[in-house]
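Record 1 of the preview.
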Amino acid sequence: MDRDPDVLIIGGGVAGLFSAYHLRLSGCSVAVVERGPIGGPQSCSSGNTGFVGTQGSAPLAEPGVPAQGLRWLLNPESPFYIKPRPDPALLAWLWHFRRACTAEAAQASFRILLDLKQRSLAMLRDLCTPDTLTANGMVVAFKTPQAFEKAARALPPGVPLRVLEPAELSALEPGVEFDIAGALYNEEGAYLRVPSFLTELAGTLTGMGVDLHEHTEVTGFETTGHRVRQVRTTRGDFRPGETVIAAGTWSAACARKLDVKLRLQPAKGYTVTVKTSPGAPRLPVLLSEGKVALTPLGDRLRLGGTLELAGLDGRISRRRVDGILRAVRSHLPALDTSATLDTWSGFRPCTPDSLPYIGRAAPYRNLVIACGHGHIGLGLAPAGGRLVAQIVSGAEPDVDLTPFRVDRY
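->
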């Protein structure tokens, strides 16, 4: 067990594991500490819908979102909710979020996120087996004619979306009854099976020589000058050459121990996994207006949605769950969602502009931050991990790192 690795990664979620993967490929000795089991219920990616590919590259901060969010706050089953509370960190986050809700900022973030997702999808195609990655395309469904016509008129550049004629939708999803105004098809739609993907990646890393330390929580740091010298944990101390904080939502609290401030909010999402019934889609489906995703998992169907800014309150709201189920029944009226197998909630680490933090954290010369991948972390982490390895090794990065800098707020 190497207590003096070249790199110690704090966090065994998808961002941390892909950072470890690329760092090991670059020749570094790597250790990963994770406060629970890898792929366990504390992991943001343990129970989500697993969407990757180029769909969903738009940032959360877009023109019109603040006004829409205020309307949604009045609806207990809406896709978006902010729990009112006297929280200065939340207020500051919302202020920066509002500043990012411009057409120019949204378009810039979209291009950056799309590029990372394209790079990540190419990596996943090379790394994953067909049992782990399903990449047969995705249906984006619209309930109202207004929403469908607006989307069809403004297809985002770089995303292979096309309008589906009713006969084409029937051919793609035979036997599925849709009650919608129209649909688009993205041939680059894909999803990962989670949490099995995480545990398989962990196994690959172990085979590559990465030391994985589960149930190991960071309790503090020792620093000298501008360097992190020691990382204290509940299972002993580490003295790494470089430290990477990739702990998802908990990255902010971890970085705070080093007086590094991150504008990060935990955005709670929900999934409901039900038994597959006749009339279930064979492809992943995104219900656009309802912000609900459906992932087919063989004899199971996973339904995911909502974005709730309520701090680290892990309680499951029945009203939010009912809102997801109601949206599904509205779009697929013949689908039976009554046989619930599991209801889960997890925290997505969100920055105000939807761009992750990937970069060195001043004043330290051997500290890298890799978090804030938000609701599309699985689709960003593979390429993000490669950037982390390039930062640590001093190699020329694949992309301009300026938009990801830690001190941008």
